Model the fold of this input.
Amino acid sequence: MKMEEGSVSSLDNSKLEGMAQDILSELVEDACLGLCFEVHRAVKQGYFFLDDTDQESMRDFEIVDQPGLDVFGQVYNQWKNKECVCPNCSRSIAASRFAPHLEKCLGMGRNSSRIANRRIVTGNNTNNKSESDQEDNDDVNDNDWSYGAEKKAKKRKSDKVNILLTLCCCYCYFFYFNE
Amino acid sequence: MDHTVSKIMSKDYQMKAAINQKLIEMGERERLKELLRAKLVESGWKDQLKAHCKDVIREKGLEHVTVEDLVTEVTPKGRALVPDSVKKELLQRIRAFLAQHAAL
Done:
């Protein structure tokens, strides 16, 4: 650049000022564009002229404050006392109890599998008591590691985990001592 | 002569591009944008322009108005309507940034 020393700073200043104006100009244009997009979307979605509604029509949309109604004026506890027919077992159930009943009836809720498991365990124990006398020896050998399993009516998950852990530990010790 | 002129111009262009990049990287451009938007709303610029938009829409028809229509009608008026105080404040901040970060 062919410039003299003295005028360098002033030229750079004017250049800087020019850049600042350019940057401002771009920012203003961004703001205008933003507004255009906002307005265009409001027009196409149909809510641009919403605040121009007359006082008369506005009264249709006032908040409702009556007992038994929600803010839109709809009745909200209409189905409390109705009864529904279960599609699975064809029983007539009260509406508020319908969802929990369906869970158990279809076997799909969180608790229905637990209840089913519990029923299986109690069902097995009452069935197997007559047979266990004949297979006594086998039972004694089998039950060496599973302490208390034949005594407890409910075989809980923690007991099964304990049995597994004990088995693993024993195998590990076996291998270590045989090295 | 033409060769040196084009050299000068490309150097300016480079410097401008470098400054813009710095503005963006340091988050300053976003902050300036937000500041400008807030000031424009505060000063009633947005409401003025929105009223002008309503006229444009009524003229072009609600169904047929396009983004281009709005941009061509609104942007020049928008530029002109920015209050001087807002311009001054923004320029101050920009100059401060340039003073700090423009490598001369």
User: Anything to note?
Assistant: DSSP finds six helices and two strands in chain A. Helices of chain A lie at 8-45, 55-58, 98-106, 110-128, 136-142, 157-178. The longest strand of chain A covers residues 83-85.
